[in-house]
TrEMBL record:
InterPro entries: CBASS_pafABC_assoc_protein (IPR051534), PafC-like (IPR028349), PafC_HTH (IPR043839), WCX_dom (IPR057727), WYL_dom (IPR026881). It comes from the Bacteria. Residues 253-326 form the WCX domain. Pfam families: HTH_PafC, WCX, WYL. This is WYL domain-containing protein. Residues 160-226 form the WYL domain. Coiled coil: none annotated.
Length: 332
């Protein structure tokens, strides 16, 4: 007679899917290689799994590899670990790995270029997660095919001024500073800081100017006596529409006609007004710039030697020529 007794169905815990195990192994192996020798307990704590799961995964890693030319697995085709340390001391050390080095990796030059860009971003007040950027820089340094060149982004803004701007942005406070404008006049400015940007070696603060009641751009090297006030900002970067161009046209701007090599026209885009007429003159492009003062024009042209020529007006040509001659005389 058949057994009529009923058994309560066993409660089952869903087993990890194969793809979940694979994803875990893909994360585990590089971590073990990076840390050289760790305990099972340290690995379990890092990944938030049980110690038995770590032991099982490590044993699976030791049976993994890439078949050789004979399509069979030989000893050199498999991962291997320090079995004595694993079984006796619960330590994990990969003594042989395969295929990992065949994966595409950044060259030392590529990693150095990315690190330089991240260092630049790290300096900007708007990037609050600087710890995340530092971690990414460390990963790029370790993950490149060779050690990246030791470098730092130079020509940045004055450290004290930048530190005060970063503090003001973090605390939502207004800054006050003395500013030397393009006409050589010194003015006190109260500004809600919104963004820090740069063009070549020059750094700028974009913010809401309470004196002018408008968005304005200030050069770091013309600021002095900066303080962070107790006044909260009235305008936040998330609420303001900041134009893509760094400089906004003004009715007081001066128009200058220049001829430039085609490859540098893009660098002058912030100074070329919308609708400016352009024409080809030989191998150069003639167009119009708008600048607030000829002093700024001198610096702009000097930064692109041999590629930009001032055509008109005569006052602008003379200002640039005299400035260049004065600079040359210092070398005599």
């Amino acid at each position: 007679m058949a057994d009529k007794r009923h058994r309560a169905p066993a409660r089952s815990v869903p087993a990890p899917q194969a793809r979940d195990k694979l994803a875990f192994l893909l994360a585990l192996v590089p971590w073990l290689l990076e840390h050289d020798r760790v305990t099972v307990q340290e690995a379990a704590a890092h990944f938030g799994v049980t110690e038995d799961e770590i032991r099982t995964s490590v044993s699976l890693v030791a049976m993994s590899g890439v078949p050789g030319a004979t399509a069979t697995y030989q000893h050199d085709d498999l991962f291997d670990i320090d079995w004595d340390a694993f079984e006796s001391d619960d330590e994990i050390a990969i003594t042989q790995h395969v295929a990992i080095d065949d994966a595409p990796r950044l060259s030392a030059r590529e990693a150095a270029a990315l690190i330089a860009g991240l260092q630049y971003l790290q300096a900007l007040p708007g990037n609050a997660d600087r710890a995340g950027i530092r971690t990414l820089i460390e990963k790029l340094s370790r993950g490149a095919s060779a050690t990246p060149s030791q470098l730092a982004v130079s020509g940045g803004p004055d450290g004290e001024v930048l530190g005060l701007v970063q503090r003001a942005v973090a605390e939502g406070r207004r800054v006050r500073f003395a500013y030397l404008n393009s006409r050589g006049e010194r003015e006190e400015r109260d500004v809600d800081p919104l963004r820090v940007e740069s063009i070549d070696a020059d750094w700028y603060l974009r913010g809401w100017d309470h004196l002018r009641q408008a968005l304005r751009t200030f050069r770091f090297d013309r600021m002095s006596d900066m303080v962070v006030t107790d006044d909260p900002i009235e305008h936040d970067a998330s609420e303001m529409h900041l134009p893509d161009t760094l400089f906004e046209p003004s009715a007081e701007d001066l128009e200058v006609t220049i001829e430039a090599s085609p490859e540098v026209i893009g660098l002058l885009a912030d100074y070329i007004p919308d609708g400016a007429l352009t024409s080809e003159v030989g191998d150069r492009i003639r167009t119009t710039l708008r600048v607030s003062h000829y002093h700024g024009l001198k610096r702009l042209i000097a930064g692109m030697p041999g590629t930009v020529r001032v055509v008109a007006p005569e006052q602008a040509r003379r200002a640039v020529a005299e400035w260049a001659a004065a600079g040359l005389a210092r070398y005599a």
